[in-house]
Each structure stands twice: as structure tokens, then as C-alpha cells.
Design goal:
Length: about 450
């Protein structure tokens, strides 16, 4: 049934979603589907949805309706987090034919083939009753096996190694959408990385919904009382570093509590590990962190940054901050602003708080007005820009390595330092995938390697 059929994908949300979309694309291709751009007419449209904010929900609905508008006879598939968290709403939307929850994406081919078979070759558009494949992820669930053998960027690949989250921060819907923690085996991860390396990949980025929990579900021996996170991830990093063709290993978002002396010492001993650490902060005020159900204080967080700066030269530390959390006063926001300035981040992603049903924060008093959230966001974004420029300037004149990825401008290739600073290097496309070394200088606002 699939021979000659076309499929188009659109992805919203995080890097885990990006990985899963690539895996679904390659799965369909291996079964005879031809992948086309989402803007074109296709037989099947798959929207990998996100539900982390109200805006993400709205964008997910918009893209699903856009798909239906492109081809009234197409099969429109909604997949992922929005489906898992609010599938009943989508069931009532007559534009969608198939709903696929998380942990069901690997069954996409089977689901589609069964749908084609049930509807027959005379299928001519939505019948009004969507098919819904889902699993209760708040109970025990196995890690869903998805794999890729190549990546769109060729040089860098995001590798999903973990799913789910047990933290239940008071503002977050993701534990309900992704379920409990579950980890991918080190053997399966290593096999995929080796395949990617054979196809030209030189850098891997380990990612997950709560990456710091990697391995905690394997066995109790991997846990150490003084460091509830880290042991499993540390072992995985060192194992993957043994693959010769892989030049770099980069980490996705980390829980601050994973940063212990033991964990940092292990990372510092790995030459391939990039000194680029994303430590989620969410607030620089202890009273707000407590309401958020975050399990650290600002003092503890700053100590974690200090551990990284002791063992790595100029590590790039990045973070996320939520503004306008319920009850956030002007004094609490001022404390956050002062703290992030002291922490001196390389990059900072700022999000206005978004109410999510089912979460504790949705029921809290003191919901902050949208104009106030907007004003506070602008203040932190201005500060983030200042800190980013200051960090980049600290690299001027320093010797760095750059992994080249793609042409940018006439006679130049662009790539990233281990700290994830974008740099241009004189040269042509034949240099893609190679690492070059030199000193950074700045010309007309561009960072150039000499």
C-alpha cells in the first residue's frame, strides 16, 4: 500500500522530538514512502506535536489544520506530547485521522498500513472518527526503540537516550505527556552512534526528556546515595568516547544536581566532551524555586557552576528561566535578575510562565498578568544578550577547535567551537566534517578563525 505514497513531516518542540521525527521519516522511507516538504501536497502529513506551553498547543493545532488544507484527501496524523496530554480535544477535531501518543511512534508504519487497509483504495478524506493509539505512560513503560542511521546535518547528530521525567515540577505538564523515566540501553546507543559515524557524523549530542536520570531505571547498583543522578550517564559518555570516528560528545539539558565533583572529574577526563553545559535554572530566587518544586537553592546552583569553571577552561554555561511564575513579586524578579547576572551565562532562554492544566501551579493564587510577564521577559532577554556578547568576546585571541559544517558566504565555511560559538573559516565545502584549529578574531561582527 505504501509504494509511491508521499509523506510530509512537521516538528514542534524539543530536540527529542527532532530525533523522533528523523526516526519516523527513515522508518517510512524504508517501507517505500517518499518524503516531501511539508509545504507540498502529500498523501500523509505527520505533525509531531508539543505541549510545553499554550503557544505550543496552538501551533500544533495550526499545523494540523494547515496540513488538511493542503490536501483534503490526505491522511493527517497527530503524534507526540499534545496527543498524549490532550488527545480528547483532538478527537473532536474533524481534520485529524490518526492520533499517535508517545511510545507509539515506532508503530507508525503498522498504524498507517492498517488504516489504508481499513479505508481501502477509495479513501477520499477524513471520515470524522479519528483512530487513537496510546499508552498509559504514568505507569511502568518500556523504552520505545527508535533509531536513525543518518542525520540531516551529516556532521552533528542528536541521539535520544532517555525518555520521561519523575520530577513533577509544579509548572510542568511533561511528566504527564512523556511518562515515567526510561532509558535506552548503552549497547543500542553505541550501535546507532557507530552507524552514524560510518555515515560521516563527527559530533553527537546526547539528549532526553530528563537526561540526568539516564540509567536510574536499569538497576539499583547504578545509584549512589550522595549523587542520585549521573552514574549511568557518566558511564555512557565514556563508552561512546571510545568510538574512533566520533570527535565530539555534547550534552543536552542537565539537572543541576548531577554536577558533583565525581561527575565533573569524569567529564573533564574525556577529551571529546564539549565544555558546553545547559543547566536548567528556571528562577534565581529561592522562594520561587520552592514553589516550582525545584530541588536546589540558588547557592547550590552557583556552586555547581563553580565546579564546572574549576575543571574546564571557559566552559559555556547556558540555562532556562521562567518569568512571571504565580506569585512572583517585583522583589523576587529582581533577585532572579541579580542572580543570573552573577552566574554570567553564555546563553539564557527566557520563557513567560504558561498555565498548564493538571499541574500544581495552575491552581496557585497570584497568577501574574501577561503585560508584566512580557516586560520582565524583555528585561532578562536584554541581559542575556549582554552576557552572551561578553562571553564571546572572552574567546577573542584564544586558540580553539572548530568542527566545520556548511558553507556560509563566498569562500567561507561555518562551524562551531566546542563551546558552541559559531565561527567562520576560510575554505570550501570539501572541509565539511573536519576539525580545524586557530585563534578567533572578530571582523564586522563575524567571528573568524585565523
Amino acid at each position: 500500500m505504501s509504494i509511491g505514497k508521499t509523506a510530509a513531516f512537521h516538528t514542534l518542540g524539543c530536540k527529542v522530538n527532532t530525533y523522533e521525527t528523523e526516526a519516523m521519516q527513515q522508518l517510512l522511507q524504508s517501507h517505500g514512502y517518499r518524503i516531501v516538504p511539508f509545504e507540498e501536497k502529500a498523501d500523509v502529513y505527520i505533525v509531531n506535536t508539543c505541549t510545553v506551553t499554550n503557544i505550543a498547543d496552538r501551533k500544533s493545532r495550526q499545523m494540523l489544520r494547515r496540513a488538511r488544507g493542503r490536501n483534503q484527501k490526505a491522511v493527517v496524523v497527530a503524534a507526540g506530547c499534545y496527543v498524549q496530554a490532550a488527545g480528547q480535544e483532538l478527537l473532536e477535531d474533524g481534520t485529524i485521522d490518526i492520533l499517535i501518543g508517545n511510545n507509539q511512534k515506532g508503530s507508525l508504519v503498522r498504524i498507517l498500513e492498517e488504516y489504508w487497509h481499513e479505508e481501502g483504495e477509495s479513501f477520499s478524506g477524513p471520515k470524522g472518527a479519528a483512530r487513537w493509539e496510546k499508552e498509559d505512560l504514568l505507569r511502568e513503560a518500556a523504552y520505545e526503540s527508535l533509531r536513525i542511521s543518518k542525520t540531516i546535518g551529516h556532521t552533528r547528530a542528536f541521539i535520544k537516550v532517555q525518555d520521561g521525567c519523575n520530577q513533577f515540577c509544579s509548572y510542568c505538564i511533561i511528566p504527564y505527556a512523556r511518562g515515567r523515566i526510561r532509558s535506552r540501553s548503552a549497547e543500542d546507543t553505541e550501535a546507532e552512534v557507530k552507524r552514524l559515524a560510518e555515515n560521516g557524523c563527527r559530533e553527537i549530542v546526547l539528549t532526553g526528556i530528563h537526561l540526568s536520570s539516564y540509567g536510574l531505571d536499569f538497576d539499583t547498583e547504578s545509584r549512589i546515595p550522595e549523587a542520585p543522578f549521573g552514574n549511568g550517564l557518566k558511564k555512557l559518555i565514556l563508552r561512546l568516547a571510545e568510538i574512533p570516528q566520533i570527535d565530539r560528545i555534547r550534552l543536552g539539558s542537565l539537572e543541576p544536581r548531577i554536577i558533583t565533583e565525581d561527575f565533573v572529574e569524569a567529564l573533564a577526563s574525556c577529551e571529546k566532551l564539549c565544555p558546553h553545559f545547559h543547566l536548567s535554572l528556571q528562577s534565581g530566587c529561592d522562594s520561587v524555586l520552592k514553589r516550582m518544586n525545584r530541588h536546589y537553592t540558588t547557592k547550590e546552583y552557583l556552586n555547581k557552576c563553580g565546579l564546572l569553571r574549576e575543571r574546564f577552561e571557559r566552559p559555556a554555561i547556558t540555562t532556562d528561566v521562567i518569568v512571571g511564575f504565580p506569585g512572583e513579586t517585583e522583589e523576587e524578579f529582581a533577585a532572579t535578575k541579580a542572580f543570573v547576572a552573577e552566574a554570567a551565562f553564555y546563553e539564557m532562554h527566557v520563557f513567560p510562565y504558561s498555565r498548564r492544566r493538571k499541574t500544581a501551579a495552575d491552581r496557585m493564587d497570584g497568577q501574574v498578568a501577561e503585560p508584566v510577564k512580557k516586560e520582565r521577559s524583555h528585561e532578562l532577554l536584554d541581559l542575556a544578550q549582554e552576557m552572551s556578547e561578553k562571553y564571546r568576546e572572552s574567546l577573542l585571541g584564544k586558540r580553539v577547535s572548530v568542527l566545520l559544517e556548511e558553507p556560509e558566504g563566498e569562500g567561507y565555511m561555518a562551524g562551531y567551537t566546542k563551546e558552541y560559538v559559531r565561527v567562520r573559516v576560510p575554505g570550501g565545502p570539501e572541509l565539511a566534517g573536519t576539525q580545524v584549529h586557530g585563534k578567533i578574531t572578530c571582523r564586522n561582527g563575524d567571528y573568524i578563525l585565523e
